[in-house]
Design brief:
48% of the residues lie in helices and 6% in strands. The chain has a two-stranded parallel ribbon. It is mainly alpha-helical and 96 residues long.
């Protein structure tokens, strides 16, 4: 499950990493997960015999008890050419 701007991209990343998704549940960006939301997610995962997996951004907004039931799939950003990032940041700060 994911409450980010483009949840399908997250699901695609899981698939690309080799995960077989039993189901997906997109939520709107910055969705405030309710107890009902989580109960439905947990029940569906249990019925499918699948773990719950989400983004770090969404995991951080769960309660401690909920967090213990959810796996996190970390996403990192890397640049093929780090100097490109340096140039972009330098331009931003020089012109900002």
């Amino acid at each position: 499950f994911a409450g980010i701007g483009r949840p399908e991209k997250f699901f695609d990343s899981l698939r690309a990493a080799g995960a077989e998704l039993a189901g997906t549940r997109p939520f709107p960006d910055h969705h405030p997960f309710t107890e009902k939301d989580f109960a439905e997610l947990a029940a569906k995962a249990k019925a499918l015999g699948a773990p719950l997996i989400t983004t770090e951004k969404d995991w951080i907004r769960l309660t401690p008890e909920q967090k213990s039931q959810v796996r996190v799939f970390p996403i990192t950003l890397s640049w093929r050419k780090p100097e490109t990032l340096d140039r972009l940041l330098n331009d931003l700060f020089r012109n900002g």
